[in-house]
## 1
Amino acid sequence: MRTHYKAWAKPFLDEHLEISIPLDEIPNLKDFYLEIGSGKGEFLIKMAEKFPDRYFVGIEKNVTCAGITAKKMVEKEVKNAKLIYADASQILPLFKEKSIKTIFLNFSDPWPKKRHHKRRLTSDLFLKQYLRVLPKGGKLIFKTDNIDLFNDSLEYFENSEFKLVSKTNNYLGEDEFDTMTEYEEFFRNEGTPINRVIYER
Ligand SMILES: C[S@@+](CC[C@H](N)C(=O)[O-])C[C@H]1O[C@@H](n2cnc3c(N)ncnc32)[C@H](O)[C@@H]1O
């Protein structure tokens, strides 16, 4: 699913700083829900609408995806979600220790080539960052269509301090604290099984 570059995206993000968080305020955030790689914002916005008492933050590094999300947030006047247009590796160190309730990784890029594995959002350097920002009992929820990424990621988690809570190779969307993402909808329509795992710190 290619996202064609939209020249309006960056100017729109620059004009609508209200949907984002200034870098110097990031360390003040606490007790929120984070989606890394939020794409066009489907999950972020639907979760914010479904759970108006909770606060959601998305991080997205692709300018067009971030711009599309920002446009939806402005149109829908979303109050309890923010979007950070940046690479997560730059932002994660800014969050306060133990400040995040749950991290969602939805259909993360698979980076199939071995030399690119360290870019995966489930690679050990990222897991170390997640462990720092999650409190004891804080959760990481990962879903993907990609079985190779899923199986490799199970190994990465096994070699970390994360504790397995649940795992399925045929997630049907039954968790109330969840909603379908854009990629998920595509793969479900194709009949591709969805893998999902929940870990706890
Ligand atoms: C395959 S898409 C999935 C989008 C969405 N989560 C969904 O399920 O529909 C993965 C997204 O993660 C973003 N991404 C990948 N690595 C990232 C990083 N290090 N920081 C921020 N965003 C990232 C990509 O730009 C892309 O938009």
Note: The mean pLDDT is 97.
## 2
Amino acid sequence: MSKLIDKGKTVFMNTYAQFPLVIDRGEGVYVFDNNGNKYLDFVAGIAVNSLGYKNDKLEKELTMQLSKLTHCSNLYWNEPAIEAAELLVESSKLDKVFFSNSGAEAVEGAMKLARKYAKKYLGKNKIEIITMKNSFHGRTYGAVTATGQTKYQKGLDPLLPGITYCDFNNIESLKNAINDNTCAVLLEPIQGEGGIKPANKQYLKDVRKICDDNNLVLIFDEVQCGVGRTGEMFAYMLYDVKPDIVALAKGLGAGVPIGAVIANEKVAEGFCPGDHATTFGGNPLVCTAAKVVLQELNKGNILNNVREQGKYLRKKLNEIKDKYDFVSDVRGHGLMLGIECSIPVKEIIAKCIEKGLLLVGSGTNVIRFVPPLVISSEEIVEGISIIGEVLDEII
Ligand SMILES: Cc1ncc(COP(=O)(O)O)c(C=O)c1O
């Protein structure tokens, strides 16, 4: 195994701090390394593998589509894309879809659409986008500028002009950031990379009202918290606040790379043919994956499971908090949960991996729990018992 990793180190750019693990295959909520070791997966490819591994329906539909047509470009229509877009429109209660290839690209598309719409209908000086401190929106230039954390922006100057930041969950800070040139507000209903920090319910309602009062486009980045992760199809449904644009990716393809921008009719008018495009976006293969994910979620069982198991995992995490002084908070929604610790979590995560549990950090000293949406209570018990063993060793 280490020979393979050594080879990897010679051929890859030095961008990732990777664990010394070569993942070979997956089944259900477990993955296996290339030595045959089994790991319970509370990471799910960072909130991506929503249906778990080797999902029968996904495998069957993708195999069928693969043998038929993988790609044809957006010069032509394809049926899986139309069906996936229709499912997104129905489930989001928004009107128009653009398919991207990743989360960052979905955020780029959302910001471009907001500016196009605002310049066209509200005045050509309407270019400023307000985003939140501690947010994360991706690594392309626009998305990394929108990201309200300087650690991701170091050495990249000059960043995209026209983006300002305000404090998350602080309505006065947003009010103070608005000026005559503001066109949009972009936020994650639950900050994912920033340490699993959910918006307060009243705050999101107030943000919506401020956007309405000031003619601002409200964009939700649901790349991490969308597509069933919270127990609702979209996190904004949990808050009962509808955005003008939502950006999706991660769980939408259950491991196949696809993102989407969905907008209401009015704002979607901002784009005309030629304004935005991507070669791979919406190809029949990736849209088949999105179609299967949305059909499976629409059946309701998986969303019910997220609510039920999310509640159960939270209860178990609260028991951990009660037992260990250095665990200071449990937060999140559905199966997007985090525990905040007063000690660095790197060692805890490394020891859990050694014992067969995959976990990922987030923000500062937060352990994040984003398992496949199909996880069972037995599997939660198994994971929690490994964490308990590791915490007992550490204290
Ligand atoms: C909220 C949010 N937006 C955008 C992104 C970027 O997505 P991608 O890595 O697919 O470009 C991420 C990735 O973690 C994310 O969590």
Note: The first helix runs from residue 2 to 11.
